Amino acid sequence: MTPHNASDDSRWSDLDRPPLNAAALRRGLVREGGLWSRVELVQRTGSTNSDLVERAAAGTAGEGAVLVAEEQTAGRGRLDRQWSAPPRSGLFFSVLLRPTEVPIARWGWLPLLTGVAVATGLSRAAGVDTALKWPNDLLVKVGGEERKAGGILAERAGEGGVVVGVGINVTLRAGELPVPQAGSLVLAGAVSTDRDPLLRAVLRSLEDWYGRWRAAGGDPAASGLQETYAAGCATLGREVRAELPGERSIVGEAVAVDGDGRLVIATREGVQEPVGAGDIVHLRPA
């Protein structure tokens, strides 16, 4: 008789967290002439981003490949932060994009575009009001407080590819939050936490926004991306501190997102400084 393993038992007995249906996802997303070429579901992996970057380098994944994991053991956020969550408690996936007709200088918009797509898809399918913290954190309101419920990480994959990874806390309960500032869709009062339709909605929204952006040659203004991102960005209009590389920081009001996707901060000295990389801390409520 094999020994009873309590952890394995609990993985499959949590009725609030049914597994994703790979066949249904493929039927709903992979179609002739569409962006999504392949949808693969794995039970467990270190990082879907790392796996897809490797496949892109090896030539075994093409544009529109989607890799979804029920659990990530070495998920990464921006600045190499760890991202962990219980199995089947969220959506953890990566996509491979090859925007060859868009100038590389505009590829920095891809994580911001993904943020807009995720927020749009979730507001439709989960009925949750979401906002974006620059550059690519997904915020929800839990008990009137802003909490981070998701994040986006983009990485170059070979010469002409970008892998964009998304992590979204869906059914994470209060006692499971990794840090007090975290949140989830269920804690934000989502009308649905069924991950199959949520993932389909997010990927359809991403296909739509990516198509518009690509058709405009990556122009963030002509595609409507810059305006839509600004409208949903919780960072704009707030006093912020930008912690920059080299242990430098600046404090001021976040006043705009410029044409390169950088956050423009008006400092107390009257200087408008664009920030392209760094950690942003919201210093006061919107």
From TrEMBL:
InterPro entries: aa-tRNA-synth_II/BPL/LPL, Biotin_CoA_COase_ligase, BPL_C, BPL_LPL_catalytic. Keywords: Biotin, Ligase. Coiled coil: none annotated. This is biotin--[biotin carboxyl-carrier protein] ligase. Pfam families: BPL_C, BPL_LplA_LipB. Its EC number is 6.3.4.15. GO terms for cellular component: cytoplasm. SUPFAM superfamilies: Class II aaRS and biotin synthetases. GO terms for molecular function: biotin--[biotin carboxyl-carrier protein] ligase activity. Residues 25-214 form the BPL/LPL catalytic domain. It comes from Streptomyces bungoensis. The keyword Transcription regulation does not apply.
